[in-house]
Design brief:
The structure is a single chain. With about 425 residues, the protein is of the alpha/beta class. Helix content is about 25%, strand content about 20%. It has nine helices and 23 strands. It has helices at about 15-25, 40-45, 75-90, 175-185, 210-215, 250-255, 280-305, 310-320, 395-410, and strands at about 5-10, 30-35, 60, 65, 95, 100-105, 110-115, 120-130, 135, 150-155, 165-170, 190-195, 205, 210, 240, 245-250, 260, 265-270, 270-275, 330, 340-345, 345-350, 375-380. Strands 1, 2, 5, 6, 7, 8 and 23 form a seven-stranded mixed β-sheet that branches. Helix 1 packs across helix 9. It starts with a strand and ends in a 7-residue tail after the last helix. Bound molecules: flavin-adenine dinucleotide.
Length: about 425
């Protein structure tokens, strides 16, 4: 026997909760189905020392903006979960935890059948808010790597102590990869890091945080159409961290500290990994982003006519000329005593619970601002749903408002 309900929201992360906030405001009957617990991605998908990269003042869920005593701090994992739980409590979000949605099908009358592990719903509207970072992205050639080496994804990494003794190879130099490489190196491990084309920004410049600057520079309000190419949306986020009060992650400094930097990984055979000789090129890309960031910030200050202190110290560090590093073409895992590989190349999406031809070529649902061609079916929390800020705690609220407004304007025929 299925339950009739106006709207089903799938997922109890920040996106599902933000949608629930606006649905509650509208007095609209709905339920939020969460397979595990509120904020599960932060509980079980992040490492022990994880902190947000975005400052606390950027925790801006609708009706639940951060009001704590440390707006310039960076929240650790447990506090993010607590923030989301308290947020749900503010408006008594109707969350049903421990309920996994197994299928969403469209009925002939245009409504949706939402099957779960223990029940079924018939709904006029379905908001899929199951996250945009679901399946670990690991290359197929990882299967060729010697079974003596333990392989985990960054989402499975917890802390250095639980890894087998020996050196660690971190694959991917985006935010997660750099943060994990830093932590492993500081724990006394020998660390190898393959470097891709992710850029860098200084944590602070001219007295303000990088996130503040990036907002002022319009970075987070960019749409896909404003990027040089649509592919550019898959670029990694700038290398920076919120750990220990927040600091810059600089690959040159990593090398000085003893982390072995390598070009990007091209293939594997047993204990031999093949590397591209693009380390210098990729380091240059990271340096260029930092230089651009500072130049654009300076231009913005000038244009705004503001009296902000110059920051020669940061400029000097960020623009320093470093010795070029040797480029290796191969890495022998045995000889390097590498016992663990941490894949930090990001995530793929998985919307296979939706039994409709919704996916575009990039593997993400086709939509306009989260609204699909199937009336009543919505997606929320996807990267670039409307803007760069869409998947962030700072940005998901605008998209949620848009979708719930769209639901309010719908006329459901046939039911
Ligand atoms: C490593 C990392 C660091 C990040 N750092 C920041 C940061 O510093 N600042 C920032 O603003 N953003 C950050 N983000 C981006 C973003 O805030 C997070 O990814 C956030 O978790 C997205 O929230 P969400 O609600 O869209 O998805 P999720 O948090 O993934 O929530 C989706 C929920 O849906 C549930 N679910 C999935 N499938 C089903 C199903 N079939 N049935 C029922 N429930 C289901 C899941 O259990 C989960 O609880 C980071 C992301 C990553 C991956």
């Amino acid at each position: 026997m299925s339950e009739q309900i106006d709207t089903v929201v799938i997922g109890g992360g920040q996106a599902g909760l933000a949608a629930s906030y606006f649905l509650t405001q509208q007095g609209r009957e709905h339920i939020v189905l969460e397979q595990h617990r509120i904020g599960e991605a932060w509980r079980s998908g992040r490492w022990d020392s994880f902190t947000l990269v975005t400052p606390n003042w950027a925790l801006d869920l609708p009706g639940g903006a951060y009001s704590g005593a440390d707006p310039d701090g960076f929240m650790p994992r447990a506090n993010i979960v607590a923030y989301l739980e308290q947020y749900a409590e503010i408006f008594k979000a109707p969350v049903k935890s421990g309920v996994r949605v197994t299928a969403v099908d469209r009925n002939p009358d245009g409504s949706y059948r939402v099957a779960t592990c223990d029940s079924e719903y018939e709904a006029d509207n379905v908001i899929v808010a199951t996250g945009g970072f679901q399946l670990p992205k690991i290359p197929d050639f990882s299967l060729n790597i010697s079974p003596k080496v333990e392989q985990i994804h960054s989402g499975q990494y917890r802390n250095p102590e639980v890894l087998p003794p020996g050196a660690v190879l971190v694959v991917g130099s985006g935010q997660s990869g750099c943060q994990l490489a830093e932590e492993l190196q500081q724990s006394g491990r020998r660390v190898y890091l393959t470097v891709g084309s992710a850029g860098r920004v200084p944590r602070r410049y001219r007295g303000e945080d990088a996130f503040w600057w990036l907002l002022k520079l319009g970075f987070f309000d960019q749409t896909i159409e404003q990027l040089p190419t649509p592919q550019a949306r898959f670029a990694a986020n700038p290398q920076v961290t919120g750990k220990n009060g927040g600091h810059t992650l600089n690959l040159h400094q990593f090398a000085q500290d003893g982390i072995v930097l390598l070009g990007h990984l091209r293939g594997a055979d047993g204990s031999t990994l093949t590397l591209a000789t693009d380390l210098a090129e990729n380091m240059a890309k990271s340096d260029a982003q930092s230089a651009n960031f500072m130049n654009n910030s300076d231009a913005w200050v000038k244009k705004a006519g503001l009296d902000m202190p110059e920051d020669e110290e940061t400029r000097a560090i960020e623009l320093a000329q470093w010795e070029p590093l040797p480029e290796a073409t191969e890495l022998d895992l045995d000889k390097s005593d590498i016992t663990t590989i941490v894949w930090a190349g990001g995530y793929r999406a998985d919307y296979s619970i939706v039994h409709l031809p919704i996916l575009g070529q990039d593997g993400y649902p086709v939509h306009l601002g989260g609204v699909t061609e199937y009336p009543g079916l919505y997606f929320l929390g996807l990267p670039w749903l409307s803007k760069r800020k869409s998947p962030l705690l700072y940005g998901v609220g605008d998209d949620a408002a848009h979708i719930v407004e769209h639901i309010a304007g719908r006329v459901c025929v046939g039911r």
